[in-house]
């Protein structure tokens, strides 16, 4: 199998079909387009539902050059934000995380300290707490590997709100696509990119890190009564749109020209031969609503740029329009970041 997320068919066949509910205490769990699990409150006195989401991957401290292991090595910031972004996209308020770290025998204590300091700094920034975890040295890994499990709360009154898109609704995305992948590539391939582009472009691309949290727009959208939200992460905007449509059983008509791209993303992707529409897009939230323009105006009042990129349909067709050209959207592929 290829590096990265397994394909949708493999996920259905060899993961989801093996899972069953054994105790009736889970309201919602693993599935296509489902990034979080909802736990049933123990009794009526519990006014909030508990929500969890896990993210994992090889990590290094933010100021350390990553070891080349043939796949991306992320920072603790990336993994933590991915976890709590998924919570926010489910309508939950993130409150805490647990951190499990597996370290190779070559790791030094200073490396461990730097990773945990970075994790705590991100939690302070996002107003959440590290509630526990585990740290282990093992021969099973060649670089540090982290598992982040985020926990959030959803008020009882909001638990039954419909979270699936319906036909004939507007699709809105916040900020720009490809932010997370652009920041990573600009940092890891800085010297190569500087041979073609000026330093200010590379620095701006690396600075996309500041856009990776979707908590502000998720909170605003949830209060505005959106029908569905989905965090665009691995596989890029195309994967996020497909997963959202697959979960809801709707079709899509997407205007390619309206997908918001920063020029820095265009330049970095062109230089490295990366497809920006299939590039990690953490920091971009997909929202489905009855009135996309109204949601745009509400988000703009919060200083959050957004764009109406298309509509859901009552068919099974998932179409991409590019001026006079119409084509079908492919099933999610391996994230294009792995091609570099």
List the helices and strands and how they pair.
Elements lengths: L7 H8 L10 E3 L8 E3 L8 E11 L17 H14 L3 E11 L5 H18 L2 E9 L7 E11 L14 E5 L4 H10 L1 H5 L4 H8 L8 H9 L4 E5 L3 H13 L2 E5 L7 H10 L11 E6 L2 H10 L4 E8 L4 E5 L2 E4 L12
Parallel strand pairs: 4-5, 9-12
Antiparallel strand pairs: 1-2, 2-3, 3-6, 4-6, 7-10, 7-11, 8-10, 9-11, 12-13
Helix pairs in contact: 2-3, 4-6, 4-9
Describe this structure in words.
- The chain is α+β, with helices and mostly antiparallel strands and 340 residues long.
- It folds into 2 domains: 31-158, 60s Ribosomal Protein L30, Chain: A, CATH 3.30.1330.10; 170-339, Phosphoribosyl-aminoimidazole Synthetase, Chain A, domain 2.
- The chain contains 10 helices and 13 strands.
- A 7-stranded mixed sheet has the order 8-10-7-11-9-12-13, with helices on both faces. It has a 6-stranded mixed sheet with strand order 1-2-3-6-4-5, with helices on one face.
- The model has no long low-confidence stretch (mean pLDDT 86).
Radius of gyration: 20 Å
Count of DSSP-assigned helices: 10
Distance between the termini: 18 Å
Helix content: 25-40%
> Helices and strands: which structural class?
alpha+beta
CATH H level, superfamily name of the largest domain: PurM-like C-terminal domain
Could you name the CATH topology of the largest domain?
Phosphoribosyl-aminoimidazole Synthetase, Chain A, domain 2
Strand line-up of the largest beta sheet: 8-10-7-11-9-12-13
Apparent shape: globular
Q: In total, how many beta strands?
A: 13
């Amino acid at each position: 199998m290829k590096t990265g997320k397994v394909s949708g068919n493999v996920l259905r066949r060899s993961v989801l079909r093996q899972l069953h509910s054994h105790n009736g205490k889970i309201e919602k769990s693993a599935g296509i387009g489902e990034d979080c699990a909802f736990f049933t409150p123990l009794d009526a006195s519990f006014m909030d539902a508990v929500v969890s989401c896990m993210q994992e991957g090889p990590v290094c401290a933010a100021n350390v050059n990553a070891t080349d292991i043939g796949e991306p090595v992320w920072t603790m910031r990336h993994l933590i934000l991915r976890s709590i972004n998924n919570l926010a996209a489910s309508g939950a308020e993130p409150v805490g995380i647990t951190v499990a770290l597996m370290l190779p025998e070559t790791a030094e204590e200073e490396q461990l300290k730097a990773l945990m300091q970075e994790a705590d700094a991100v939690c302070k920034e996002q107003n959440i707490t590290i509630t526990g975890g585990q740290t282990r040295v093992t021969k099973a890994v060649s670089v540090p590997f982290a598992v982040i499990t985020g926990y959030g709360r959803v008020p009882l009154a909001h638990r039954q709100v419909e979270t699936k898109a319906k036909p004939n609704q507007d699709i809105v995305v916040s900020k720009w696509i490809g932010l997370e992948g652009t920041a990573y590539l600009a940092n890891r391939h800085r010297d190569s990119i500087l041979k073609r582009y000026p330093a200010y472009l590379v620095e701006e691309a690396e600075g996309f890190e500041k856009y990776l949290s979707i908590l502000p727009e998720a909170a605003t959208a949830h209060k505005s009564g959106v029908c569905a939200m989905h965090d665009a992460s691995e596989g890029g905007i195309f994967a996020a749109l497909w997963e959202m449509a697959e979960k809801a059983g709707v079709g899509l008509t997407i205007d390619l020209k309206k997908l918001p791209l920063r020029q820095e993303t265009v330049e970095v992707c062109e230089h490295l031969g990366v497809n920006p529409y299939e590039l990690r897009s953490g920091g971009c939230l997909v929202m489905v609503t009855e009135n996309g323009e109204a949601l745009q105006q509400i988000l703009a009042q919060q200083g959050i740029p957004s764009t109406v990129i298309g509509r859901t349909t009552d068919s099974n067709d998932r179409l991409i329009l590019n001026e006079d050209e119409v084509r079908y959207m492919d099933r999610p592929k391996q994230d294009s970041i792995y091609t570099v």
